[in-house]
Amino acid sequence: MPRDPLIGLVGKPSAGKSSTLNSLTDASSKVGNFPFTTIDPQRAIGYLQIDCACTRYNLTDKCKPNYGSCDNGRRSVPIELLDVAGLVPGAHEGKGLGNKFLDDLRHADALIHVVDASGTTDAEGKVTRGYDPSVDIAWLRSEIVAWIRGNLMAKWGSIKRRHIAVKATAVETLQNQFSGYGSTSAVVARTLDKLGLKEPLEEWSDETIDRVVNAFTDEKFPTVIALNKIDHPDADKNIAKIAKQQDPNSIVLCSAISEIFLRKMAKQGYIRYTEGSEFVDTREDLIADGDPDGGGLKELDEKNRNRIENLKDMVLYRFGSTGVVHVLTKAAEILGLVPVFPVRNIATFGSGGVGEGMGSNKGVFRDCVLVKKGSTVGDVARKVMGDAPIAYIEGAGGLRVAEDQLVAVGKNDILSFKVGK
């Protein structure tokens, strides 16, 4: 059965990876039945914000997710995160927690590389000033490439001999070698298609193998670069340099510590704040806007009032948000994740039987699953229903859909599975 997407967080010590992970998994402001959950010391649940299907049918007031939350059509969907610890230069040679780091990393479908944009920590996370964080981005990728290439070249001779003996395709041979990295034949096929190689595998030069390994790394481990600590005065020049070197679509600017602080103050009743927003309201702000009770908020002391004002100026108004919410959004985007809404009753979008009407207090669109781009209706059926026999599948409007049809946002993304033979 298709497994849930897994997003890995990597970063050198003191880059802010733990703060980023904490801000992504903080469910203190969530409603519904999905509190913050740590699956094991390395795995936790984060929340991806998506546009919920309830907005298409004007049912935002009746949308009651079983997990996560939905606030006026903006839905927070649980997604599994993996804390990949032990990133230091030389990991592929076993330095630091190198072997464990790489073994953990192979389970991830995409990576979020948390980078200290301030340049105040060196390659090993020690306090410094003037460090070039673009170096960190380069050596994370070089560690992964060196790891994969080293494993491949160690047995390249026998790989070629077997390839010729069994008359395998290049995809079949490479998948035998790359399956240990969580690869699939589709990933290998996309890698080779993008390269457009003409020569047969047994004639590949070292240069060709390098190209294949680099392309496979990009395909298997797409990476979001989360430039953290953007409120530090040294961050601007580093961000400008990295923006010239990397694909701008892979970069998210963020301040994890600011997000944690804002959520804490909101939880304690000192401010009104929506995750991912550029706006923060204090008691004084609301009173000035005509609310004599100040929204029922507590009064801030001078220290926290000044900190919030500085945070507004240095982060929220300047960058549009703390960026933390957008980190997961970008990871989902590069993976092409599609939210699909399984329902029992395709007419009411409820989870109950035929008698459940639109006004039912049980709610609509109770469930949402995330599937990878290219998934079919049948893939979703197996993910949701397991091995249960499916008689037929209905889409929005009650029309039957075939299992080989693709799912996409707004297309085959509301499904009802009818069990039977």
Automatic annotation (TrEMBL):
It comes from the Eukaryota. Residues 5-274 form the OBG-type G domain. The keyword Nucleotide-binding applies. The keyword Nucleotide-binding applies. Pfam families: MMR_HSR1 (PF01926), YGR210-like_G4 (PF08438). Keywords: Nucleotide-binding. PANTHER family: OBG GTPASE FAMILY, OBG-TYPE G DOMAIN-CONTAINING PROTEIN. This is OBG-type G domain-containing protein.
